[in-house]
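Researcher: Here's a chain I'd like modeled. Treat it as a single chain, no partners, no ligands.
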Amino acid sequence: MSSNPLFNVVSLFAGCGGSSMGYQLAGGKVLLAVEWDENAAATYRLNHPQTLLFHQDIATVTGEEILEKTGLKPGELDILDGSPPCQGFSTAGKRCVKDSRNRLFEEYIRILQALSPKVFVMENVSGMAKGPMKPIFVEILQTLKKSGYNVSVRLMNAKYYGVPQSRQRVIFIGVRQDLGILPSHPTPQGIPICLKEALQSLPASSEFERPTGKAAQIAQCLKPGEDGSQLHSRFGAKASYYSLKRLSWFEVAPTICKTLRPGMCGLLHPDENRYLSIAELKQIASFPDDYKFQGTIEQQWARIGNSVPPLLMQAIASHIRKEILAKIPNFSSQLRSYKK
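Model: Modeled as a single isolated chain. Structure tokens:
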């Protein structure tokens, strides 16, 4: 990571710091982050001690506070980042249109309008652009454009950007209209990495859980690449067991979901009757080996399952730096106090 940052970032809904890690890998400096979850905030603080962290409800944060703490004026911030909670949109959940979390994008846009950054990046699950959620997606897109930004939206899969995990996410990239630069996304950068290649150099770990109850019975019968839905007729398993999946060494890992329930769901090791370890999850989520997670295994799993893969965000941030920020007249001379 560069000691002489090339751009600055403020991250909202920062989680455990996956996106912040990606920005740093791309040469940026995250000046300030906002996260309300206690375990996520503790994990963020442990791994990003140089970033000022607001551990509070986003609704209580103002743009004026952020500007004061970062020493920036409106329009000076390079990138505003954010991943508003996605559970209401996720196809893995109940997909309730009235879920209050579906409206948290309004807090992101409120701060966007106050900071007026050159570029913004907003990430969410693919489900927000599908079925009953599509009207909210359209509302978000229209509001972002009315806020003074040219906006590009793409469905990106992390497996094409060095992440050994198939993780599709909707990525909004916006560029302030007065800059006269159109937003764009990075093109796929490589072929997917299979699980065996991703984990081949990882030492054995004892930090894992084992399936219990009916989940244990189902797990014993699952072959590599199978999930609980394929044994429904034999066990009468509920849909909640469908996300119990045994991984295959020769495929890309599936999306890491937020929830590990030893008696119900999770990702199983290809050969052993256990869930993936935290060390293994870090590898397939593209976190560095020395990235530290706190709390119970379930809490650590949730942090990784909720996170933006660092290598995916590194690809996005590097693209923005080279193809958008570098085209702004005199941009390199505008790097100020955040070089410290």
